[in-house]
Automatic annotation (TrEMBL):
Residues 36-56 are annotated as: Disordered. It comes from Cladorrhinum samala. This is Heterokaryon incompatibility protein-domain-containing protein. InterPro entries: HET, HetReg/Transcr_Mod. Residues 57-238 form the Heterokaryon incompatibility domain.
Amino acid sequence: MSYFIYNPLNKDEIRVLRLLPGEQDDALQGRLETHQLPPALGSTPPPPDGGPAASGFDALSYVWGGEVRPEDGCSIAIDGQTELGITPSLDSFLRRLRRPSDDRILWADAVCINQQDTKEREQQVALMPRVYSSADSVLVDLGEESEDSDLALEIMDAAWKKHIWAGAKFSGKDMSLEESVLLFGLGNIIKPDDSSAADRRHVLEAAGELPPRGDAKWHSVARFFSRPWFARVWVIQEFILARNPVMHLGTRTLNWRELWAPICQYADGQPLAAVPRTFESQRGVLSYFSLGVSRRLRELRTTPGGEQLILKYIPGNVDGHKLCDWLLLFQLSQCTRRRDRYFALLGLASDVAAASGAAEADLAIDYTSPIETIVVRMGRFLLSHGPDSLLMSGLSQQDSSGHLKPGTPSWVRDYTQVGRYFRGQSVLKYPHKAAGNTGFYVRPSPWRMDTIVVAGMRVDTVDTAAFASPLREFSRTRDMKHYSFDRLRRRFSLGMRAMLGGSGDQVLMDGGRYRPTGESLFDAAAKTWSHDQTEDDGLMGFHFLSWTAALGDVNKMMEAFDQAYEMTAKRFGQKSRDSVNEAMSAFNSLVFDADGFRVQPTRTRRGYFASLPDCYLPGDEIWCVVGVPMPLLLRKSDAYTEGHLYKLVGPCYVHGIMNGEVLERRASELYFLPIH
């Protein structure tokens, strides 16, 4: 067998595959032709579906399914003689796309890029955003049909058509039917102006009935979203940048919006709430939901009424996400090469599009440098655009022991590995201003390449070590059979003791004031658990859990519940048991989330209540850093003997200093702080 030899490409050139006609079982044949890409579109959104043709070729979005193996026997003959090996997944997709009598012009990375030439691969990967945004259509391969794929599609079709009449629920707000149809872009199916009972009945009858809750048929939907395409990191830009994405399942073509509508929320519930949850299916649903939102926002900006809909229901500029935002949003997506987690998202990020000079060099597609070098380069770029990346970095995000990985500075977040528990959104969603209105200051160290210098002020020192959590096994496995209220109660008791001290639970019922703010110790402790996001109902749940924890060691649990209800009703004005139950459940979730996010409450040397990464050690220091919205927990490093060098443990919450109090009072005491 002879093998294909690629001709070199010039700048802005790609190869396209002219797939020759044939029947299903005929050998695959084609020709590779050089194609000049149109000029880069920059940050301009692609036109909505049906926009003018741009290129004369369609691009494929598919799962490689591993490396090419000769034993699979899959190949395509180029120019009638040279065999080019391909994976079984691409072989299957090309056979389904091939026409019986006409050529098809396609772009598939495995064929159109010389995968053996590293330099060409780097250059072509950098062009991929332009490839997918200029292709006439992006053909998405969800794989072959399965025994229950038709059933899954029928259930999803019936689900969204049943719920849409109540209106979608987006960002916690209820939409009208007309707005919902505009959001989903399904006006060809649902006509808001003709939403009479008869019209609605006609749509519902055509969609069919949903299986009862608990029926085994719901498993078909879980298996559908467990398909590999939904988990792949490269499909993110391929789908979002596409002019016209066309979903292929076996020989069927599907409307992507009709797959997105059933996984959205509606005023009367979630259509797929009865679907059994597996990690794979939940990952697929979350990924496709984010893909749909990101893509639909780009379309709505060019649609009459779309901009107004975005301003009304979708806070912030999601379409203007920075690289850090995209890395967080698709943190569970998979890739074979670790560095591709960055490379696959560069074409979507607003800050990458504006990069120049040294920052642009840090972002270069590079398949030769060690992965540690790539991670540090990307970390340097992320840090140059604000403090958010610091809040996702540190020893707390390195490994289960809180030790620094060789070759990775503590201020760099290695997004290529999920590591411990990825808590980016939980850190960024709270509007804290521990640094007040100061601007972020960071500089590279003149002495060490792996060190940065920030400006800050030491707040306090930690004298204790973290405790072992009774919930840890459950947090690790996410298996409900490991959960019990008693474990949660004991976890809560340990946290309260760490803040309030004492050898017994009775201390949880004592009064007293929290000196930094003047409020009660209980209120300060509750706000520390929740990072000061506790509403009145949450405070009631905190008190109920406190009293239950205090009484549970002495009385039987049901008696403890009864007494705690009475005390809560007296404290909060004769609340019903249902309202107390709801409040307690809400606060229980906070306790459980704190454990899952690997943070623990404690009391510092000077008496501050703090929520720290749970790998903290005696001697760790809390610093307020200029321009960083949360205090940072730092640990002295032994890597430098001529002065203090610190490692970043992670961000933390310290009650009473989260609104600029420290830097405003002691601005003259700033230190330049090297972090390794």
